[in-house]
TrEMBL record:
Classification of source organism: Bacteria, Bacillati, Actinomycetota, Actinomycetes, Mycobacteriales
UniProt-listed InterPro entries: Adenine_glyco, DNA-3mA_glycosylase, DNA_glycosylase
Protein name as it appears in the record: DNA-3-methyladenine glycosylase I
Binding-site residues, Zn(2+): 27, 39, 193, 197
Record Pfam families: Adenine_glyco (PF03352)
Keyword Nucleus: no
Matching Gene3D superfamilies: Hypothetical protein, domain 2
BP terms from Gene Ontology: base-excision repair
GO terms for MF: DNA-3-methyladenine glycosylase activity; metal ion binding
Keyword Zinc: yes
Keyword entries, A-Z: Metal-binding, Zinc
Length: 214
């Protein structure tokens, strides 16, 4: 792509999109160098793996009141601190582990969020017994919408509210409806890549071919 072609593309580009140095059009948030890989290969692609889903619930909880860029930059530290988000291992964490984590500068040292992560790990077996898997539970809240039509920017939906309510009734913490919608966006329950973003069609194809857990 020539400089003049790139300039014309940027001039005609909606403000919620950005063209990278590689010529790829992305959601504006995904154009930052530390966000490109996550945007291009993870965000929005459907996930059915229970460990990845649990990790995302935990990280979204830690993000509450912060930016996702902060959490993403610390993700490997979180994985190390929380036993790679092995549910059984975290469920066995005790007060000593809480103090260890509060002192760990590599993560978000929020005592309430740390305790919530341990609490939620202890709630996982109950949810698995009830639904068969975490994936079956989370995907039961997938909206019935036309995936080809962008819904625009929202932070909360009826489905994310219902998911939040269901988790809170089962004793989960830091799972508000906005946090749960961010989970739905990241784990592919919805396709919120902006129309015109190169990843949007790839996510749509992945969602079309995805085998929903039941």
């Amino acid at each position: 792509m020539s400089e003049s072609e790139a300039a014309d593309l940027v001039a005609d580009q909606p403000p919620d999109l950005v063209t990278g140095d590689d010529g790829i059009v992305r959601c504006r948030w995904g154009g930052a160098p530390d966000q490109i890989r996550y945007h291009d290969t993870e965000w929005g692609f459907p996930v059915a793996d229970d460990r990845r889903l649990f990790e995302k619930v935990c990280l979204e909880g830690f993000q509450s009141g912060l930016s996702w860029r902060t959490i993403l930059a610390k993700r490997e530290n979180f994985r190390k601190a929380f036993a790679d988000f092995d549910v059984a291992a975290i469920a066995d964490f005790d007060d000593g582990d809480v103090e260890r984590l509060v002192a760990d500068s590599g993560i978000i040292r929020h005592r309430g969020k740390i305790r919530a992560t341990i609490n939620n790990a202890r709630r996982v077996p109950e949810l698995v017994e009830e639904f068969g898997s975490l994936a079956a539970f989370f995907w039961s809240f997938e909206p019935s919408v036309d995936d080809t039509v962008p819904v625009g920017f929202v932070a909360i939906t009826d489905e994310s509210t219902a998911m939040s309510t269901a988790l809170k009734k089962r004793g989960w913490k830091f799972v508000g409806p906005t946090t749960m919608y961010a989970l739905m966006q990241a784990m592919g329950l919805v396709n919120d890549h902006v129309a015109g973003c190169e990843a949007r069609d790839r996510v749509s194809d992945a969602r079309r071919d995805f085998h929903r857990p039941s």
